[in-house]
Design brief:
CATH class: Alpha Beta
Bound molecules: FE2/S2 (inorganic) cluster
CATH architecture: Alpha-Beta Complex
Largest sheet: 3 strands, antiparallel
Structural class: alpha+beta
Number of domains: 1
Helix content: 40-55%
Distance between the termini: 30 Å
CATH topology: Sufe protein. Chain: A
Number of strands: 3
Number of helices: 6
Strand content: 15-25%
Length: about 140
Amino acid sequence: MYSEKVMDHFSNPRNVGEIENASGVGTVGNAKCGDIMRIFLDIDENQVIRDCKFKTFGCGAAVATSSMATEMVMGKTVQEALEVTNVAVMEALDGLPPVKVHCSLLAEEAIHAALWDYAEKNGIQIEGLKKPKADIHDEEE
Ligand code: FES
């Protein structure tokens, strides 16, 4: 049911942890399954992501997609990082079962929320980046 890459990133996730004094932090959750994902970005003065870590309290697919997403944004500019969509992450993982697509959305949303946090802190605008949904606590049904 899961590709080898998904199993690999689930059993051996890359970039787990936190970054102290991160340039941007994004936390998102899915109200239905209750899973939560937090992404930390360390961004240099040229707007290049030099480090990225994540913490995910969630299912295996959420762990695997966050792991892959952190690898994909590393070394990219904040603008390029916007292209790391959930579809791109799923493709890099050789696909996810349809019922698990929402898990990959969390990864995209968490990166966007972290980029938004970075942009706000630095008073800049990242073209094409939309304001993240309300804080996860407001999302509960
Ligand atoms: Fe909720 Fe996967 S089941 S993130």
